[in-house]
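Practice problem. Given the sequence and the SMILES for flavin-adenine dinucleotide, write out the predicted structure.
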Amino acid sequence: MTPSCLIADYDVTGLSAFHTEAKVDYFYEIQDLSDVRALHEIYEFSIHKHLPIILIGRGTNFLFAFKRFHGILIKMNLRGYNMNGDILTVSAGELVSLVSQKVYTEHNNPRLMSWVWLPGTWGGAIAGNAGCFGLETKDFLIDVEVYDMVKWVHETLTAAQCAFIYRGSKLKAQAQRIILSARFDLSRIGENTYNSMSLPEFMSIRREKQPTGYTCGSFFKNPPGESAGRLIDAAGLKGTRMGWVKISEQHANFFINDEKGGYDDILALRDLARKCVREKFGIELEEEVRIIQAK
Ligand SMILES: Cc1cc2nc3c(=O)[nH]c(=O)nc-3n(C[C@H](O)[C@H](O)[C@H](O)COP(=O)(O)OP(=O)(O)OC[C@H]3O[C@@H](n4cnc5c(N)ncnc54)[C@H](O)[C@@H]3O)c2cc1C
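Answer key:
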């Protein structure tokens, strides 16, 4: 029987930062710790019905490359944070930018300044080892609390057990272990150019460097010792458009959806960027954005 907590035939268009039109067969949102209890039943249902599960935070690193996904989408929306000295404890669905700003304005601690405008949740930032302006999750994470849907247990993983790599960890692109909360030690963040700036100064730098709109940020990972944006720019693709989607003139690794674009426009632009960079530089670009295709 379908678990009663699942919402059927759910529109998820607004749940990915690209805003491509999409629906899923089933949807579930974790808003409270008690909602975690239903996960085992959902998992068993997914096995019984052969339905894949996608786990999502704010969807700022996801492209839904489907009109309908025959599976279950679980959204992590546990909110809240706590500061005790230099130790920051966050719930996985809380927003990185909001907490980073409050750490500065309410706790008088500038260490997270470089993350003030980093979109998405703490769960997403941990899974993807997010980073900007020289600071990555792995640099100051102490441990994470996860719920294992298969084994039906809560576990604590140290930062080393998360096996962080550039824009990834063993918790990315899997749905067995859901990050519920995490602890960070802000004293591990060294002095840098950004944490000596005022908030308005930092915001104006970030605004200058990054385009806004329906985008998932950097589409491709930076190849070793290179910048994907520089390569795409040098291949002459800034401003190139496929349907309603274009490569930003401001930052060539950002694809911007002008509201009406479909996933096929985004994939066409991805293929073009890859082809041009491969032909000009012999470098194969690898996606940073997680692309979910319908089976
Ligand atoms: C304008 C813009 C600028 C950006 N700039 C940067 C930048 O400077 N640096 C950078 O690193 N990224 C950047 N990004 C990408 C994005 O902000 C990060 O990848 C972010 O950490 C994703 O968080 P999210 O909550 O949206 O995760 P989602 O996109 O929802 O998910 C990303 C991955 O994390 C997994 N995940 C999410 N929550 C959990 C959880 N609770 N438990 C287990 N797995 C989970 C998902 O399954 C998925 O594999 C940018 C994006 C945008 C739109």
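Check your answer against the key. The pocket of flavin-adenine dinucleotide is lined by residues 17, 55-62, 76, 92, 118-121, 123-125, 127-128, 130-132, 171-173, 178-179, 210, 215-217, 290 (CB under 6 Å).
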